[in-house]
Amino acid sequence: MKNTVHITSILFIVVSISQAGGCRQAISPREYPRTTADRFIEHFPDSIPNTSDISKFPVPESRFCLIHIRQIHYLPFHRVLDECHAMLKRIPDDPFYDDLRASVRSVIDETRIKNRTIYRAINDCQSDIYHLALYLRDQWQIRALRTEGLFMQVNWMEFREEYRHRLQNVLATDIFTDASEIPYLPGADLMLAMNQELTVRDCDSFTAVQLAGNDMDARFNQREDHVLRIIANYSDPVVPVIFGGDHHFYDNIINWNRKNPFRRFSLIEITPTAYPQDTGDYDSTPQPE
Questions:
Q1: 16 strand-pairing partners
Q2: Closest to 49 in 3D by CA, of 132, 134, 127, 137
Q3: Model pTM?
Q4: Which of 5, 158, 188, 254 is a plausible cystine mate for 130, CB 3.0–4.6 Å?
Q5: Which secondary-structure segment (H or E) carries 112?
Q6: How far, in Å, are 48, 129, 186 from residue 115 at the CA level?
Q7: What is the C-alpha separation between 105 and 103, in angstroms, rounded?
């Protein structure tokens, strides 16, 4: 679905001084020098496979185009099951505690069903992201992306180990019995990196994530601003970023462009087909295992 908004109409009105009369005349965006980011966002399609929505926010003469790929991602929801199983082991083998034992088992059953639904949704969303990244590589020659929850550069073997670790943790809970049911659950970024399909780079703020539990500014604005700084200092003109769907870079880009007129951003926001309409059960902040 086409959804295009010109951030420039909010940010600024560019004017020139006429040599003849000194009057201020608005410059048409068509008169700007064309940058790589300008050309990319202009020609990027309004609909591509594995997406339900593509929104574009072009800024003429941008240095960078951020492609925000919205995600729901793996989190250790199985911890609740681990805690319940540990509690079952601590309950004395006495009829007096039968009601408590039954309550804990009921929570285990309900949690297993809920987690199965959540993990399937995450797997489907990550599958869309994986294939979307391959589309960007094959059709647009994009060879690298940045991802949420990664604070420093690591090699493909470390991505592979993290992939296996996450998958084993889920399978150990008996929520699923076969890894083939949820191959994308650990994360499209991990699969892309360990298969050496694309280069996957860091972009998240460790400090902000540590504060994110009780500090909404850290959870959202500080991390989003950090992404812009990383891209502006270390990235190519067009940069896909896999980041939680509750994050929105629009306001951050407006503020950034005001302060950095020679390093402006345009924005493309992509929603995968399997991204859920209601994300109430999904926490957008990465957590360590």
A1: 25
A2: 132
A3: 0.80
A4: 188
A5: helix 98-140
A6: 30, 21, 14
A7: 5
DSSP summary character for residue 59? -
Q: At which residue do the structure tokens 């504060």 appear? A: 211
Distance CA 287, CA 78 (A): 13
Region of 196 (left: φ > 0; alpha: ψ -120 to 50; beta: rest) is left
Q: pLDDT-derived band of residue 212, with 50, 70 and 90 as boundaries? A: low
Task: Give, as one character, the DSSP assignment of residue 223.
Answer: H
- At 65 the three-state DSSP class reads strand
The single residue listed with the structure tokens 């574009």 is 56
8-state DSSP, 33? P
Q: Write out pLDDT tens, residues 166-183.
A: 999 888 877 888 999 999
Which phi and psi angles does 109 have, rounded to 5°? -65, -45
Q: What share of the chain is helix, strand, coil (3-state, %, to 5)?
A: 45, 15, 35
Closest to 139 in 3D by CA, of 128, 127, 131, 150? 131
Tokens 């995450």 found at: 122
Residue 162: count other Cβ atoms within 10 Å of its Cβ.
Answer: 20
Q: Which residues have C-beta within 8 Å of that of residue 74, sequence separation ≥ 6?
A: 122, 126, 166, 185, 186, 187
Rank 9-13, 51-55, 170-174 by mean pLDDT and report only the highest: 51-55
CA dist 40 → 90, 146, 235 (Å): 60, 18, 15
pLDDT digits (tens, 9 = 90+) for 91-102: 888 888 788 878
Is 280 within 8 Å of 80 (Cβ atoms)? no
The span from the CA of 202 to the CA of 148, in Å, is 7
